[in-house]
Design goal:
The structure holds two protein chains of two kinds. By secondary structure, chain A is mostly helical. Chain A contains 16 helices and no strands. Chain A has two domains: about 60 residues; about 200 residues, MetI-like fold, CATH 1.10.3720. Chain A starts with a helix and ends in a 5-residue tail after the last helix. By secondary structure, chain B is mainly alpha-helical. Chain B has 14 helices and two strands.
Chain lengths: ~300, ~290
């Protein structure tokens, strides 16, 4: 090999090493809060005050998790939150696909306006619409039930529904029309064509939309607090009240000053527990998450 | 002719049938509520046994938000500052990470998975817990940048935004998960021939980045600005969001006042969004012109 080629190879090696170094460094900084959370959640009260214990707890102390599970009412809350998350996510995905299909497959007057409005609803903050929505739900007697999440989702107005409509719109637009047309000539109606040809071919978009809907419904707290009220707390609303609930469950006796007080190890265990289901979903479907943009072609404009 | 007309009408009807759930939902859950909150914002709203009682006030709620409320103006300014400062930080960081990941290194999938993790677990309560533990500050940074240090070395109006920036730096970076993916997709669509041609012409990597990569990414940057500003604005820890949610239930202020603040907030959001997108667009024209 001549000198030029060597030089190029060496330069590439140096640049790759620098890239690795930067990625590891950024990765560490990025994950610092997660590492902190995991590490602290296993620390006993004596580990917390021990200056020698910095990152690795002296023993695998599980008491924090036992207490945090009690405070969050973990299993009960888990089932309820799961139901209040998966059904709106399914409905939102299904409706977004129908609307996205309609916008991409048919020409009709006012389509441009509708697309513009879909984008506009993405920008409009919930604060400007949630109060009348709440009043409407109260009149319909669905405040405090999952129906208050299901109803907007069923009409394409769920959490970030517009984003999913745009994803399906983009996806169906890239799909060749020839299959549709062949089926139409065979006499199938529009709904059959959509169900038999559109839906199966859009499977990646369905998976991506469902996963993101699940995550975003799980993480929604402003609307959940307003619509569900005191009827039931989702996992993250339970986390929001963590300290107050803890003090109710483990009250400090004002006379003897005995009892337990909350510490950061317990709150970190609670925080980790509240995102654990999300972490499991992410561990299983991580490829779908990180390849979401490629698989649905959102940036195709 | 008749046949074609019929086809056109049929197409319209089919299209509208598919889109109809959205149209009904849009009217019911977006347009009508928008009208109602605007009406509320011009009134004093009271809930009585017979229903909602309103008393027309004109723009008084809006005036009061700025003049009478002790904290709203400060909070709004804080929100504007945070969004204007944090959005570019998030986007520059995302672009750097995307370019590193675009180098086809071994194990880049692992890094991609790590960088996307925050998107899945970021929510108001989780962030609040991590902020309370000061787990979102850059490790070791607090030794150099104590509040006193900032107060002595910065003009007063910058102390708050800068200390927020440092105390929650990682939290800000956590919003870069989706922008990284979008940048990565944009980078992968770039035309390789263009770079070879530039390289033959003797352009350096630095020049190629500014003259080729960045202009080609412009549409992607606009998408990212939109996504980031909207996400930051909807985040429950955003000071304005918690202020509006808090004041809604207060008897002495009430729904009318809260909705007026919500509308002001919406206007502020559009202002930031429009301003940032205008900057990106302007740069695009500037590069093309030169």
């Amino acid at each position: 090999m001549n000198r030029g080629a060597w030089k190029k190879k060496l330069g590439n090696l140096a640049r790759n090493t620098a890239a690795y170094y930067l990625l590891v460094l950024i990765g560490f900084v990025f994950l610092y809060p997660v590492i902190y959370m995991v590490s602290y959640s296993f620390m006993s009260a004596s580990d917390l005050v021990n200056p020698l214990v910095k990152w690795i707890p002296s023993s695998l102390y599980l008491e924090n998790y036992r207490e945090a599970m009690e405070v969050l009412d973990f299993w009960n809350t888990l089932v309820k939150t799961f139901l209040a998350t998966i059904f709106p996510a399914l409905l939102q995905t299904a409706v977004a696909s129908v609307v996205g299909y309609g916008l991409s497959r048919f020409r009709f007057p006012g389509k441009g306006l509708i697309l513009a409005m879909v984008l506009a609803t993405f920008i409009i903050p919930a604060q400007v619409t949630m109060i009348p929505q709440f009043l409407m739900f109260r009149d319909l007697h669905i405040v405090g039930s999952v129906v208050s999440f299901l109803l907007p989702a069923s009409l394409g107005q769920g959490i970030r529904s517009s984003l999913f409509i745009l994803i399906f719109y983009q996806f169906f637009r890239m799909m060749p029309r020839s299959l549709d047309e062949a089926a139409q000539i065979d006499g199938a109606n529009a709904l059959t064509v959509f169900l038999k040809i559109g839906v199966p071919s859009a499977l990646p978009a369905y998976v991506v939309s469902l996963l993101f809907s699940f995550v975003w419904y799980w993480n929604e707290t402003t609307l959940a607090a307003l619509y569900f009220g005191n009827e039931f707390k989702t996992m993250l609303l339970a986390l929001e009240n963590f300290t107050a609930t803890y003090q109710r469950l483990y009250p400090i006796d004002p006379y003897s000053q005995t009892g337990k007080s909350i510490n950061e190890a317990i709150t970190m265990a609670g925080t980790l527990l509240s995102v654990l289901p999300l972490l499991v979903v992410y561990a299983v479907f991580q490829r779908w998450f990180v390849e979401s943009v490629d698989r649905t072609g959102i940036t195709g404009e | 002719m008749n046949m074609r007309m019929r086809l056109k009408t049929r197409n319209t009807l089919k299209g509208l049938a598919f889109v109809s759930p959205w149209i009904v939902g849009f009217l019911l859950f977006t347009l009508v509520p928008l009208g109602r909150t605007f009406w509320f914002s011009l009134n004093e709203v009271r809930f009585t046994a017979e229903g909602i009682k309103t008393r027309f006030l004109g723009w008084l709620n809006y005036k009061n938000a700025f003049l009478l409320d002790v904290s709203f103006t400060d909070i709004l300014v804080e929100y504007l500052w945070q969004t204007v400062v944090n959005t570019p930080i998030i986007l520059v960081f995302s672009l750097i990470v995307a370019m590193l990941l675009n180098r086809n290194l071994k194990g880049k999938g692992v890094f991609r998975t790590l960088f996307f993790l925050p998107v899945v677990i970021t929510s108001g309560p989780v962030m609040q817990q991590l902020l309370d533990q000061q787990a979102t500050a850059l490790p070791g940074l607090e030794r150099f940048l104590s509040p006193q240090f900032l107060q002595q070395n910065l003009p007063a109006f910058l102390v708050e935004p800068v200390s927020f920036l440092f105390s929650s730096f990682i939290m800000i970076l956590w919003f870069s998960g989706v922008p990284i993916l979008i940048f990565l997709a944009g980078l992968q669509k770039l035309d390789r021939n263009m770079y070879e041609a530039a390289s033959i012409d003797g352009a350096s990597r630095w020049q190629m980045f500014w003259k080729l990569t960045l202009p080609a990414l412009n549409p992607v940057i606009v998408v990212n600005v939109l996504f980031t500003v909207v996400t930051l604005s909807a985040f429950p820890l955003n000071p304005v969001v918690s202020k509006i949610s808090g004041d809604m239930y207060k008897v002495e202020k009430g729904i009318g006042f809260a909705t007026a603040m919500a509308w002001i907030y919406f206007a502020a959001l559009l202002l930031v969004l429009g301003g940032l997108i205008a900057i990106v667009r302007r740069r695009e024209r500037g590069v093309r012109g030169s």
